Amino acid sequence: MLRISEHFEYYHNDHISIFQKIENWEHYFNLSTLEDKINFENDEEKNCVSISLYRNSEENQYSCSISSSYYIGLDCFPNLGANIYIEPKINNEEKQVNYVEMLLESLKEPENFEHLDGLISTKFNEDWIEIDNHLQPLLTPFLIAQFLSVVKDLVKKGLKKSYYEKVENLSNKVKGKVLVGQQIKQNIFKNRYTKNNL
């Protein structure tokens, strides 16, 4: 997995050394597409990260250019198939920004709700991305939030209700709708007072 920070190109000059940390990194230079990008919610104006790979086959040299913007998170390049995790730019070995705690703190104030719409995007229809164990606690609240959003949409639309029609002549029980006409013909006229036509 490629692991970079937001505004990566401003803080790092040697992009290929970061890219070489990916398992089987040379494989990506043999693909037909050597450029890829990820846009937030597929909006061209909301570019999260882009990558360009270059290979000089005569000198067997590799280079790449990676640029990222203000977006953080976990995703997969659609054409290259490489997974990427973009973390806050001020993260380092000594200090880690807890962006989940910051988000949850902002959700405590109701006046923030109108500004937070479209803040998170979870792609359930795409392949799963395996993450490192240290990232799991960070991403769990986002998955819960997305699940609750889907449940909210289902509740708004309503679930499909359907009944199976079944007509029976039951003994001493009333379930469902009593068919009065059939009850009189089949049971009352024949002196069967213990049966109910439903």
Structural class: alpha+beta
The shape is: elongated
As laid out across the biggest beta sheet, the strand order is: 1-6-5
Radius of gyration in whole Å, from Cα?
A: 30 Å
Distance between the termini: 63 Å
Describe this structure in words.
The chain is α+β, with helices and mostly antiparallel strands. The protein has one domain. It has five helices and eight strands; from the N terminus they run βααβββββααβαβ. It has helices at residues 8-11, 15-19, 99-106, 136-157, 180-188; strands at residues 2-5, 35-39, 47-56, 61-68, 73-76, 83-87, 169-171, 195-197. Strand 3 and strand 4 (61-68) form a beta hairpin. The chain is elongated, with a radius of gyration of 30 Å. The model has no long low-confidence stretch (mean pLDDT 82). InterPro entries: McrC. It holds the Pfam family McrBC. It comes from Chryseobacterium carnipullorum. This is McrBC 5-methylcytosine restriction system component.
Please describe the topology of this protein.
Elements: E1 2-5, H1 8-11, H2 15-19, E2 35-39, E3 47-56, E4 61-68, E5 73-76, E6 83-87, H3 99-106, H4 136-157, E7 169-171, H5 180-188, E8 195-197
Parallel strand pairs: 1-6
Antiparallel strand pairs: 2-3, 3-4, 5-6, 7-8
